[in-house]
């Protein structure tokens, strides 16, 4: 099978007016460089936006590139499957208060859903996929299709802080065996959506609480780093102990995380850990090549490891756009006097941590022949 043949699937974006929804529009409709496989056909958000043109409904445009004129002129639809029957798949960037039921309704109606929301992430037969880490988990969708008697399904990407974290943890687990970790996050304001945290709360400040976040960082990595059961009915989670502390900081985009790990292998040096991170490669599932997905350029690197000489990296302003926002970065690798090693990592929360991750998951599903035109 090939992952490079041109395709033309019609896609919708649910929750298209928000921080993540706008990223979907940007990634799908780059000026002069439309997505080679996906044509943006349907846009949906709340009843407040239905019937408006996208340009008017998304008037709080938050990205530095303008909204493409042809998208600004599209008419918004309500988020029900009957309004998206012309779409072969949908991306969901819906508020979690509504995402659970809406996404289930689309899957039941036969429309595959690639979701950013937390609602279905830990469902037994829903794959929780970071394409740079566990692409083979996508095979779980067959169990959903059997159960729901529908060609629809739901694929989730994890919490935006879990995403960068598991790219690093996977490399360490594969090389040395991972036993436990402690992570402290410094999360950008774009993670809270629009309008998010008030400027009077966040300027000149750090807020040491993000509702529900620590629990996700302590549970999602075990599922993502787990093993697909041989009958593709679920995941055996990786047994790891985890502790997370999450903070909101006055950064626009890019989540920074201080990580300490305990590994199983003894007598490992910092130089060996550094070498493993520097040589981190894309996973190679048997069914397709992640390296040939159209959104990832030639020679894409999932992880950039800064050497000891660049001891003040990664930094969000300098490094969040590495690899177009799809590359995770790590630095300051050194021994930890309590666990074994400590380091700092960074990932773009609305690109690889949200819309970009879901876009790669959909490309992967197409490459694995899990999706057909309606
Ligand atoms: N921001 C980030 O870094 C990340 C976000 N996520 C998740 O992605 C999802 C979107 O996040 P984000 O873009 O930040 O959120 P925003 O608050 O910026 O956007 C929410 C979107 O949901 C729509 N919406 C709200 N209520 C309803 C409703 N009742 N029916 C239909 N649509 C509705 C809004 O439409 P309208 O404009 O019409 O109100 C808007 O399009 C959330 O579930 C979030 O948890 C996941 C990873 C990272
Ligand atoms: N809570 C994350 C973003 C987010 O929406 O996460 P989740 O999809 O897990 O609720 C942040 O604030 O940065």
Strand content: 15-25%
Largest sheet: 6 strands, parallel
Query: Could you tell me which ligands this complex binds, including any ions or cofactors?
Result: NADPH dihydro-nicotinamide-adenine-dinucleotide phosphate, aspartyl phosphate
- Whole-number mean pLDDT: 95
Provide the CATH top-level class of the largest domain. Alpha Beta
> Strand sequence of the main sheet, in spatial order?
5-4-1-6-7-8
Catalogue the unreliable spans: 1-5
Q: Write down how many β-strands occur, each being a DSSP E stretch of 2 or more residues.
A: 16
Individual helix count: 11
Order of helices and strands: EHEEEHHEEHEHEHEHHEEEEHEHEEH
Keywords: Amino-acid biosynthesis, Methionine biosynthesis, NADP, Oxidoreductase, Threonine biosynthesis
GO molecular function, one term: NAD binding
Family: Belongs to the aspartate-semialdehyde dehydrogenase family.
Organism: Capsaspora owczarzaki (strain ATCC 30864)
Write the layout of secondary structure elements.
Elements: E1 9-14, H1 19-28, E2 29-30, E3 33-34, E4 38-45, H2 54-57, H3 69-72, E5 77-78, E6 89-92, H4 96-108, E7 113-115, H5 141-148, E8 154-156, H6 160-176, E9 178-187, H7 199-202, H8 213-224, E10 227-228, E11 235-236, E12 241-248, E13 255-263, H9 270-278, E14 303-305, H10 316-319, E15 328-335, E16 341-347, H11 351-367
Parallel strand pairs: 1-4, 1-6, 4-5, 6-7, 7-8, 9-12, 14-15
Antiparallel strand pairs: 2-3, 9-13, 10-11, 13-16, 15-16
Helix pairs in contact: 1-11, 6-8
The chain binds NADPH dihydro-nicotinamide-adenine-dinucleotide phosphate and aspartyl phosphate.
């Amino acid at each position: 099978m090939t992952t490079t043949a041109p395709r033309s699937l019609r896609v919708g974006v649910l929750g298209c007016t928000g921080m993540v929804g706008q990223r979907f529009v940007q990634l799908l409709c780059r000026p002069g460089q439309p997505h080679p496989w996906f044509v943006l056909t349907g846009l949906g958000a709340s009843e407040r936006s239905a019937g408006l043109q996208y340009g008017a409904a998304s008037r709080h445009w938050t990205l530095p590139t303008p909204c493409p004129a042809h998208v600004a002129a599209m008419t918004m639809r309500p988020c029900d499957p009957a309004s998206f029957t012309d779409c072969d798949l949908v991306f969901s960037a819906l508020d979690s208060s509504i995402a659970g039921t809406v996404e289930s309704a689309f899957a039941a109606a036969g429309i595959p859903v690639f979701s950013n929301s937390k609602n279905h992430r830990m469902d037994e037969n829903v794959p929780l996929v970071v394409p740079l880490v566990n692409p083979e988990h996508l095979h779980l969708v067959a169990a959903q299709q059997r159960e729901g008697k529908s060609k629809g399904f739901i694929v989730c990407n994890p919490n935006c802080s879990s995403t960068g974290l598991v790219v690093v943890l996977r490399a360490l687990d594969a090389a040395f065996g991972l036993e436990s970790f402690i992570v402290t996050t410094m999360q950008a304001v774009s993670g809270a959506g629009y309008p998010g945290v008030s400027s009077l709360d966040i300027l000149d400040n750090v807020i040491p609480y993000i509702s529900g976040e620590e629990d996700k960082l302590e549970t999602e990595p075990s599922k993502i780093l787990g093993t697909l059961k041989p009958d593709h009915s679920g995941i055996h989670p990786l047994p790891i102990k985890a502790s997370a502390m999450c903070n909101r900081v006055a950064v626009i985009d890019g989540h920074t995380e201080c990580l300490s790990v305990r590994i199983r292998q003894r007598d490992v040096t910092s130089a060996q850990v550094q070498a493993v991170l520097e040589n981190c490669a894309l996973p190679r599932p048997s069914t397709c090549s992640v390296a040939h997905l159209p959104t990832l350029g030639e020679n894409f690197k999932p992880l950039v490891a800064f050497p000891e000489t660049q001891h003040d990296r990664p930094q969000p302003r300098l490094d969040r756009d590495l690899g177009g926002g799809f590359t995770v970065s790590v630095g300051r690798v050194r021994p930890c006097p309590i666990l074994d090693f400590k380091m700092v990592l960074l990932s773009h929360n609305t690109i690889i941590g949200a819309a970009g991750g879901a876009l790669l998951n959909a490309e992967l599903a197409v490459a694995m022949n899990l999706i057909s035109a309606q």
